[in-house]
């Protein structure tokens, strides 16, 4: 993956330093806030959140498969490179935060999944009108917050943020 400007965005995140406060950026979703890690954990372990992020990821792959088949052929390569970037540069930071805040392994898995989704969406930036759910989540992380759940049936509903 050669999108170093985008990857530097991820590298520059000050992880979770604004949790409990309103996000500092505008995003394209209506927001509900939670105000503790216990509330956030109830949200990110709720099957609704897993279903929502899975549907969002599937929406991107389906879009690419239907409209940009030749670009979609690179999906596995981009995913491998994105996972390697996260493992080599980000996971240790998330793990350290997880351990110091007594969070579970699911927390780390959620963050990695969201970031990989953002990398995938960014990697297909030349594909017009592609879904951008995870790029919106990235804005939440960049704000120092944690996108942790969904209220409603995606794509309708509200993003839950700590």
- Determine the number of helices (DSSP H or I, runs of at least 4 residues): 8
Radius of gyration: 15 Å
* Strand arrangement, major sheet: 1-3-2
Poorly predicted tracts of residues: none
Q: Biggest β-sheet: count, sense, barrel?
A: 3 strands, mixed
Approximately how much helix is present in the residues? Answer: 55-70%
Descriptive account of the structure:
There is one protein chain. The chain has helices at residues 4-11, 37-44, 47-67, 69-72, 75-89, 91-100, 105-123, 133-142; strands at residues 31-33, 147-151, 158-161. The protein has one domain. Helix 7 (105-123) packs across helix 8. 59% of the residues lie in helices and 7% in strands. The longest helix has 21 residues, at 47-67. With 162 residues, it is mainly alpha-helical. It has a three-stranded mixed β-sheet with strand order 1-3-2. The termini are far apart. It is built from eight helices and three strands; from the N terminus they run αβαααααααββ. The chain is globular, with a radius of gyration of 15 Å. 28% of the residues are buried. Strand 2 and strand 3 form a beta hairpin.
